[in-house]
Amino acid sequence: MKKKKPILGEAPKASRRSFIKHTFTGSTALALGYPTWQACSSERKDDRPGKKPLPASNGVVTRRDISQLEPNDPSLQALKDAVGVLRKRSDAMALAPDGWFAYATLHNMFCFTNSFKIQVHFTWLFFPWHRAYLYFLEKKLQAAIQEPSLALHYWDWTKYPRIPAAYWGKDNPLNDPTRLASEKDQVPDDYMNMVSHLRTPHFKGFGGFPKISPDRPYGEGAIEQSVHNSIHNWIGGNMDNFATASMDPIFYAHHGNIDRVWDSWLEADPSHQNPSDEEFLDYSFEFTDEWGHPVTIKVKDVLDTQKLGYQFESLDFTKTYEGAGGHPRPSNTLPCLVQEVEMNENERSAMATALKNGFRRVIIVMDRFKLPYIPICIRVFIALKNEQQSTPDTEGAEYVTTATILPVGMPDSSLIDKNIIMQAEVGPHLAALVACGLPLQATLEPVKVPGRELTAIPVEISNIRIQFDDEVG
User: Fold this and answer.
1) DSSP letter string over 114-170?
2) Pair type for strands 310-312 and 398-405
3) Count of beta carbons in the 10 Å neighbourhood of residue 277
4) Judging by DSSP bridges, how do beta strands 284-288 and 294-298 pair with one another?
5) Which of 47, 185, 278, 302 is deepest in the core (most CB within 10 A)?
6) CATH 1.10.1280.10 region(s) of the chain?
7) CB count in 10 Å sphere of residue 422
8) What percent of the residues of the chain are helix, what percent strand, and what percent coil, each to the nearest 5?
9) Quick check: 62 and 312 in contact, CB under 8 A?
10) Contact present, 161 and 177 (Cβ < 8 Å)
11) Do 450 and 161 touch, CB atoms closer than 8 A?
12) Are strands 420-425 and 218-219 parallel, antiparallel or unpaired?
């Protein structure tokens, strides 16, 4: 092992309307196709005066791209009204269980924690937990304005790489003044190279490692460590910290698109499958329903969005660049971590051949042992090893990926700073470097994000290696 080194939805065009209110019984829920856990939750009688049961809807709402909507689209006003209601509840009573602040704090509990037992990031729980989290918010918003056709929106950053207009404006419940990215800032292309992400063949690489034990290797899937983390950090303010991210309403549009990526990945290839392990399917989460009552839901209950009562208007993503031509180049002026790349020499030729012939799953793996105390975005390059320089050769270095490391809890006491694996696809343009037989070096270069100075941040990487995808973990 190398010595540790520091481094730097509603149906389209539907109008707002009132619905006949009636009690939603468990039998009615089952008849409409709602899961039994939801029916049981809905049968509870409200214990606060003035609350009304949510009217039933036997339809499936459609989540739409908020960046493509007209300013006067009725679904936008419905969303603003509902978020405004939840915010007012929190203003009146900070910990109101059906208010904005309390529900945002729930995200804090399960994502900004050092406890391996309840942390949902860095493992295969990342996608299902956040899907359930958005689902129960959607129910709260529907109940807040008594509008079961209300659907959360998503923000397709590949189609519109700026913060959508709906999230700006004085007195707008969707605005968050802490953001550091402006209306004119644009998400860099390399943050969202969906081509490689959507062809990842196994859920382990796409969605994260199994959550089994903190003593075994575990790691983020390709989506979490790249586009998810990077856009959180790029927006800044509340969004760049697990403790506060869900306070910003754009969190839910960003994660709405992450949720959409999951369905898009499953649709991209019949071989793409969710885990079938009982440990995955029977894992349960704790949330609160539309009235703030505790409710439990299992992973197997959130795998089908139609059964949850929503769908996406589209699963297509804009194709971002692929190949070496449009990739970022190293600056050769920034403080970087440069480290030798390990490789099984007996497999070097086979890896080069696999890359050259289009076999996709030769990957670079980085083992890290410490999280930074503030977010850090990095670009990873590979070049021939050069003992005389500490920065990459701008001519010979090949780009691999862009990833962001987000801090969790107190770094000195974290239980999840061990055995964390970062992984990224190695493209065919690196075949010649792999085949050459000479030592390789990886360079991790920091990326400047809106509103923040670029500084060297200590991040401990134990080793960096290239290997076949099925050998990881």
Assistant:
1) --TTT--SSSTTHHHHHHHHHHHHHHHHHHHTT-TT----B--TTT--S--GGG-ST
2) unpaired
3) 13
4) antiparallel
5) 302
6) 26-312
7) 23
8) 35, 15, 50
9) yes
10) no
11) no
12) parallel
207 or 3: whose pLDDT is higher? Answer: 207
| Per-residue pLDDT band at 23 (split at 50, 70, 90) | very low
SS3 label, residue 7: coil
Bridge partners (DSSP) listed for residue 463:
367
Calculate the CA dihedral of residues 316, 318, 323, 326 and round it to 10 degrees. Answer: -170
Q: Which helix (H) or strand (E) holds 195?
A: helix 194-198
- pTM (whole model) above 0.90: no
Q: How many CB atoms lie within 10 A of CB 366?
A: 26
* Burial tier of 340 (Cβ tally within 10 Å: 0-12, 13-18, 19+): middle
Of 78, 15, 26, nearest to 53 by C-alpha is 26
Q: Cβ distance 196 to 222 under 8 Å?
A: yes
Q: What is the pLDDT of residues 274-327, one digit of tens each?
A: 999 999 999 999 999 998 899 999 999 999 999 999 999 999 998 766 655 578
Give dist(CA 109, CA 268) in Å, integer.
33
Place of tokens 């978020």: 83
Under 8 Å between Cβ of 123 and 132: no
**Residue 429 CB coordination number (10 Å):** 16
Is the CB of residue 248 less than 8 Å from the CB of residue 237?
yes
The tokens for 457 are 């941040």
CATH architecture of 26-312: Orthogonal Bundle (1.10)
Contacts of 291 (CB under 8 A, 6+ apart): 44, 46, 48, 51, 97, 98, 143
In the structure encoding, which two tokens stand for residue 290, read together? 């539309």
Spatial separation of the C-alpha atoms in residues 398 and 300, rounded to whole Å: 41
CB distance 106 to 132 below 8 Å: no
Q: Is 390 helix (H, G, I), strand (E, B) or coil?
A: coil
Distance CA 327, CA 42 (A): 51
Contact 128, 259 (CB under 8 A): no
Mean pLDDT of 225-230: 94
As to burial, measured by CB atoms within 10 angstroms (0-12 exposed, 13-18 middle, 19+ buried), residue 67 is: buried
